[in-house]
Amino acid sequence: MSVNFGLWYDFRNPPQWRQPFGRMYADYLDQIVRAEALGFDSVWLTEHHFCEDGYTPSPLVISGAIGARTTRMRIGTNLIVLPLHDPVRIAEDAATVSLLTGGRFDLGVGIGYKQGEFEAFGRELKHRPSLIEDSVEIIRRGWRGENVNYSGKLHSLGNLPITPVPESPPALLIGGMAEPAIDRAARIGDGFLSTGGIGLDTYVEALERQGKDPGQGRIALGCWALISDDPKLEAERAGPHALYQANEYIRWGAFGPPDQVPLFPDAATALDQGLYEVWTPDEAIAKLSALIGKYPQIVDIHFWAQLPGEPVSAGERRIECLAGKVLPQLRT
């Protein structure tokens, strides 16, 4: 199974590094077009709401814009917080993006964790498992072209079609870091979205427990490595942005109850003790080759293109380093 290599975007624009949003969106779209020309295979978008930094709330809209500017790259979400959404609208919008992009779209979803989002959308965190399982079933039935006619614990739909029907149904990938979420990915997903390599063994074991062939599993891995010819200088440049990114996720509850998970005190600690790693190209080749060899389920590895607030030139440096010195070796 060949591995795609891609980039990951959240379109965050923190106040301390604020630039006009329109210019930032245009710059990032231009960067994605250049990345496709450099040989990157995929681009992935994530979602949150009510964030001061503008963390993208509309990844499917951006997916359509990327599809209009690219010809080959696969476009995916890693991830959409599915319990916040009407599953019919997600099924319709994702099918439309798939049709507009010639089948280049994959839908990655997760259960969510940010309390404020659930409150604002009138959902309860305790209902997340039922919300996501109902939604996945409705989406799948709709994409098969049948009238849905579904009644679940929290979602139901009468004998109605969901249109348009995608000609190439997107892969429906499920992410998570906790064991129940990873088990769900193995049970009802077309694959698993892993953040920072968390849960790879758990996913393979879950496939085995459910009587599935682990060799048929699929993993799309969001990698937090920063790759540079000068790791020390890269850490100095990227450190403040990594600190901001990591601590915002902690404040939101991504890694456990916010009152129980301490913030990183400084950039060096965030880079040393968080999900980040700073590698030379040779280290990247060795580590990623070993990872791919150990987990043949990996079908995609994607890297943060831009940490929040970084200038576009910072992302360009890492993208060019990856394209010129790492990806050719990994592909051979």
Explained architecture:
- The protein has helices at about 20-40, 60-70, 85-100, 115-120, 130-145, 180-190, 200-210, 230-250, 265-275, 280-295, 310-330; strands spanning about 5-10, 40-45, 75, 80, 105-110, 150, 155, 170-175, 190-195, 220-225, 225, 275-280, 300-305.
- It is α/β, with parallel strands linked by helices and about 325 residues long.
- The chain has a single domain (about 5-240, about 275-330), classed as TIM Barrel (Alpha-Beta Barrel).
- Strand 2 (about 40-45), helix 2 and strand 3 form a beta-alpha-beta unit.
At a glance:
This protein is of the alpha/beta class and 332 residues long. 45% of the residues lie in helices and 16% in strands.
By CATH reckoning, the class would read Alpha Beta
Task: Give the integer mean of the pLDDT values.
Answer: 97
Give the helix proportion (percent range): 40-55%
Radius of gyration over C-alpha positions, nearest whole angstrom: 19 Å
CATH architecture: Alpha-Beta Barrel
> Hey, roughly how much beta strand do the residues contain?
15-25%
Count of β-strands: 13
- What is the terminal-to-terminal distance? 13 Å
The major beta sheet can be summarized as: 8 strands, parallel, barrel
Q: Looking at CATH, which topology would you report?
A: TIM Barrel
In one word, what is the shape?
globular
Low-confidence residue ranges: none
Structural class: alpha/beta
Topology as a string of helices (H) and strands (E): EHEHEEHEHHEEEHEHEEHHEHEH
Determine the number of helices (DSSP H or I, runs of at least 4 residues): 11
- Strand order within the widest sheet? 1-2-3-5-8-9-10-13
Total domains: 1
CATH superfamily annotation: Luciferase-like domain
